[in-house]
Amino acid sequence: MIQETRLWLIVGVVTIAVSFVIIATLGFNLGIDFTGGSLLVIEGRAPDAEAVRTLLQEELELPVTVSLADGQYFIRTVPLTEEEHAAVVAALEAAGMFMQELRYESIGPTIGTELRRKATLSLGLVSLVIIVYLIFIFRETKGIIAGWKFGLAALYALLHDLAVVTALFVILGEVLNVVMDTLFVTAMLSLLGFSVNDTIVIFDRFKRDWRTRSSGNFLDILDRAVRACVTRSLNISFAILLVLGALFFFGGESIRWFVVALIAGTIVGTYSSLLVAPPLLYYLARR
Known about the structure:
Elements: H1 5-26, H2 32-35, E1 37-44, H3 49-60, E2 65-69, E3 72-77, H4 82-94, E4 98-107, H5 109-137, H6 147-176, H7 182-213, H8 218-250, H9 256-275, H10 277-285
Antiparallel strand pairs: 1-3, 1-4, 2-3
């Protein structure tokens, strides 16, 4: 299954590189959780997003960006007071552009910066703890391969997963105006745990198979370990996807993109555990 290690290594590197290019080219569409400001989501009768933007800029002199998706207008602006919020709604109603307000939230710039810092710190700390944990549990494999190489291979798979899912949401942000908020960070932290769990199972199976056979080709034993775990990994992922699919269709609009992130992470995490981390482990074992 992983006998063509060079091919899988190239696919993994190219996937990560393309993901980073997409992220760097399109940029993040951060939610107000991280940037600070106010967000209004309204259902209205405006001819287009530009008409709403022009109205609010001319009548209320507010710096706004407006986008349209699924018949809903997403209005982002500076943090608003309750009076200013009411003025925005009144201006839209007077212009015949307002039907109903679907969502409103406002976060100050200081809180947004703090949330962004904590989100970055959380992802970094979780990744560090995972590496230390892997080095610890595989510390007895020095006769086979240094424990830190297991940690590095798992970290590479995690980087692959985070890059792919982030690139997907960057594209969704460009096409459908999907934002990255605290729920997205929560999904990424969940993805880290799921992905590394699958990787640990495969690595542990390899360790046990190597000790049982005590000799043999490293790649053959690693390949057998991966094959032995394929059915388990696919069955678990399928069961998780069934639950996430139900949440996507019946869970409501507020968690829809959170669920999409988990679905994408489950698929990518299963792939990386089977075909990204093991090939790199083999490459490191030869060095």
